[in-house]
Amino acid sequence: MAREFQRGHKARISDLTAGTDLYVGVQISGPGLTFDISCFGLDADERLSDDRYFIFYNQPKSPEESVQLLGAQAGDTESFRVTLDRIPQQIRKLSFTATLDGAGQMSQIGPGYIRIVAGGEEVARYPFNGSEFSTERAVMLGDFYFKDVWRFAAVGQGFDGGLDALLRNFGGEVAEDEPAAPQQPQAAAPGFAPPAQAAAPPAFGVPAGGPAPAPAPAPAPAPTPAAPAPQPVAQGFAPPPGATPPPAPAPPAPPVHTAPTIVAPMHTPPGGSPVPPPAPAPAPYGQPGQQPPYGPGPGQTAPPPPGYAAQPQAPQAPAPPPGYGQPTPPPGYGQPTPPPGYGQQQPPGQMPGQPAPYGAPQGAPQGAAPQGPGVLGALQQFKETPTGQRWTQQNKKLVRVDLGVGEQPVLARQGSMVLYQGKVDFSYKGAGFTGRIVGNATGQEMQLMRCTGKGQVFFAENSTMLHPIELQGDAVCVSAENVLAFDESLQYEVRRIEGHGIPGGALFTMQFQGTGTVVVKTHGVPVVLPVTPTTFADCNAVVAWSAASQVVVSSQVRMRRNSYPGDTGESVNLQFRGAPGNFIVVQPYEI
Amino acid sequence: MNQPLAGFAPAPVTARMENHGNHMLKVAMQTGNDLLARVGSMVAYEGFVQYEPNPPAVRQIAKDWLTGEGAPLMKCSGDGLLYLADYGANVVVINLNGDGISVNATNLLAFDAHLTWGVERVKGLAKFAGQGLWNTRISGQGWVALTSRGKPIVVDCGGGDDETYVDPDALVAWSPNLKVKGKRSFRAQSLIGRGSGEAYQMAFSGQGIVVVQPSEDSTDRLRVRG
Questions:
Q1: Do A358 and B13 touch (CB under 8 A)?
Q2: B190 in contact with chain A, both atoms CB, cutoff 8 A
Q3: Does B69 touch chain A (CB under 8 A)?
Q4: DSSP 8-state secondary structure symbol assigned to residue A523
Q5: Which of the listed ranges A13-27, A59-73, B16-30 does the model predict with the highest average pLDDT?
Q6: A396 shares contact with chain B (CB less than 8 Å)
Q7: Neighbours of A198 (CB within 10 A)
């Protein structure tokens, strides 16, 4: 039976198994995440002095083949064959690491493990999951190290800086692996090669580069949202590229969608080139980052419960490498497979019987520390994000405006301030006499306050999602109740949409025009649709649209409206017409 | 059939308190290591866990909690896994490790019973928004879980005399060593219906942090349910 390791546990390999020809399997996955799993062969000083012992997809074996990369199999995301007694003298430590490829962080990973299989039987397993990590982008899973004899240690240590930090940790070749840094956020195939090449051009046959410029600091995950899309991660991995672009990208999609999509179109006038809404669509599909987990074999899909799928097909699917047949795949792997699926639930399962796993007071608190302990450590992930810009989105539901930048007041919905720093004055912003008349008559009335002074103000309301839309001379229509705040430099007016069948005779909306930012709020994740010849929206759910599109009222279901008193179903639909490039924003919530 | 749901199985326990998703708290209960949790926050448990609402010890400490119905805390003891949630609010888990934190009463979800804690009324703010602002100050070696409507933001007060002003309805927690005072920003005109909507703020100054939620909804849902 496999021995279960916990973080920090160590054991002599000879205590685990008599064999020295070992199979090391790593299973790690997360929704929408891809990983590069590699093995660093380190010398006695724990440095990567010989880069031929950096085993990764591009260099799948060490010179004397004591460490080989086998690829995904038997439910493992990646696997290695380690022949301990052939490892040369100078290599004293093998460190197995997983690096995120593309956007994401280690806290998003599902349950995974690193395990040692000898003679077809699993002898050790160190399970881990995302809750042990936070924003790290790389993690050292476990080590084989030589101290009198070969030993195994469950490490489970994350690295904030991802691959860059890992290399620094192992090689100290910081100067040389600078080129790695820029790619590091998206990492994977392209990210990997440069550092290697920097370390040892000949070995990797990528002598091409003097180190590329752009020595970006490692952790900056700036380009993440958009990045995964064009990243040709797959090339290196070349998993069966047919692997259907799975629907799984759904999770990453919303962020991509919500934040940049709305903002993006604004930089170009709505008449302009890129149709904004399609943007999110390609992202998930084009995202080859998805493939590796799914690629390895159709049998091994479902990353979270590897056990289920892997059991039947896995062994045969990815042709076990030659010479590795001895741990007869079907029985050998079949047997360790059930644990992956069930292993994760094991602790709860054991619970009534033996409360051991809950060793809360001793083991747990310090064992976990996914982030540094203490209040500050725990709250690190919620820190405010500093920028020098006027408007900064702090998270999906909070927006900060720096009144010092741009030196002009902000108008905001009354009561929407949650926090401010500096000298800021809040005053009532009247709509003026005509404004009130119009507002009362049209329902497009905004209860505003004017924020003046110098300082930062944080706006939020009712946990609605906020979307700063930057206008550069163009215009956007937003219904008044969805406006949270805007620069005073913007002009706004009530616009009337006429059409028969509308209760009250007409619909009204606010049109914002000029140069500045307007923050729109939506209940839930909105959908941004391109305006096509057949774009319709419920007038209660539509939040905003680019003002260049023409709005037509189409009430299709009036038949039913007549048969009942009161409102039945879909009362008024709005049809949008416009040149390509226009868009509408619809929220999943009907006011 | 389980396939789509399998991803939501509990992860192995690695700490006393952990998030299960963003909105649920998982506590590894153990005999002798009791937990104080908001009444009504339990959504599931596994194992042998017992609940004692309004335990005497709590009544003692929280005697001036003007609730009229006893402290809204229950003591949970036993062995097992306990899942807590508060109507879909985000849960923030903190390992205090010797630090202290002041938490708004409605934003406190659970904490280790062995921590040092006390209830206090925010000084200088006699009656805020009709409900009075009560906060719980917790410190020691152990775990605390807070709730926040939406992902919170942590702002550093920066030290010095500069003040950070917070809408009391959006306030979640703050460092106990901060200086707190009330600020009424309304003027005469706001009394006649022309206010900016921001009548009261709390001003924090000193070294420390303030945690704010992106919502001004401070309704105590657990309490409302009764």
A1: yes
A2: yes
A3: no
A4: S
A5: B16-30
A6: yes
A7: 25
Q: What range defines the domain where residue A433 resides?
A: 391-586
Q: Which fold has domain B12-215?
A: Double-stranded beta-helix (3.60.160)
User: Distance between CA A11 and CA A27 in Å, rounded?
Assistant: 21
Contacts of A127 in chain B (CB under 8 A): 12
Q: A452 CB near a chain B CB, below 8 Å?
A: no
A387 and B CB contact within 8 Å: no
CATH number of the domain residue A524 falls in = 3.60.160.10
Cβ separation B13–A346 shorter than 8 A = no
Residue B199 confidence (pLDDT)? 66
Q: Taking CB atoms and an 8 Å cutoff, what residues of chain A touch B141?
A: 365
Measured in whole angstroms, the distance separating CA A228 from the mean position of its chain's CA atoms is 9
ipTM over 0.95: no
Residue of A419, A448, A452 best to disrupt the B interface, most CBs of B under 10 A = A419
Q: CB contact, 8 Å: B28 with chain A?
A: yes
Residues on chain A touching B213 (C-beta within 8 angstroms): 418, 460, 463
**Interface membership of A373 toward B (CB under 8 Å):** yes
Write down the pTM of the prediction.
Answer: 0.54
- Residues B21, B171, A446: CA angle, nearest 5 degrees: 100
Rounded to a whole number of angstroms, the distance from the CA of B56 to the nearest CA of chain A is 25
Interface residue A345 vs chain B (CB under 8 A): yes
Asked if A308 and A419 sit in the same domain, the reply is: no
For residue B66, pLDDT over 50 is answered with yes
Contact A473, A266 (CB under 8 A): no
Q: Which of B7, B9, B196 sits opposite A345 (nearest CB)?
A: B9
A535 lies in some domain: yes
Q: Look at chain A and report how many structural domains it folds into.
A: 2
**Side chain identity at residue A322, one-letter code:** P
Residue B146: pLDDT band (50, 70, 90) is very high
Report B:151-180 residues touching A (Cβ under 8 A). Answer: 151-156, 158, 162-167, 170, 175
Domain residue ranges of chain B, discontinuous segments joined by +:
12-215
Looking at the structure, do residues A489 and A416 belong to the same domain, yes or no?
A: yes
Beta bridge partners of A69: A80
Quick: pLDDT tens for A229-276: 334 333 333 333 333 344 433 333 333 333 333 333 333 333 333 333
Q: How far does A449 lie from chain B, in Å, by closest CA?
A: 5
Whether A167 and A222 map to the same domain: the answer is: yes
Q: Which residue of A has its CA nearest to B192?
A: A428
Q: What is the pLDDT of residues A523-565, one digit of tens each?
A: 888 998 888 888 888 877 888 988 888 888 776 554 444 455 5
Which residue type does A64 have?
E
| Closest chain B residue to the Cα of A459, Cα to Cα | B214
Which residues lie below 8 Å from residue B96, measured CB to CB, with a gap of 6+?
A: A373, A374, A375, B115, B138, B139, B140, B141, B142, B143, B144
* pLDDT value at B161 more than 70: yes
- Distance from the B217 Cα atom to the nearest Cα atom in chain A, whole angstroms: 6
Nearest to B208 by CA among B133, B169, B156: B156
Residue A281 covered by a domain: no
Cα(A241)–Cα(A311) distance, integer angstroms: 23
Q: Which of A131, A421, A426 sits opposite B19 (nearest CB)?
A: A131
Mean pLDDT for chain B? 80
Q: How far is CA A393 from CA A109, A300, A524, in A?
A: 25, 39, 16
Mean pLDDT of A183-197: 36
Q: What is the pLDDT of residue A223?
A: 39
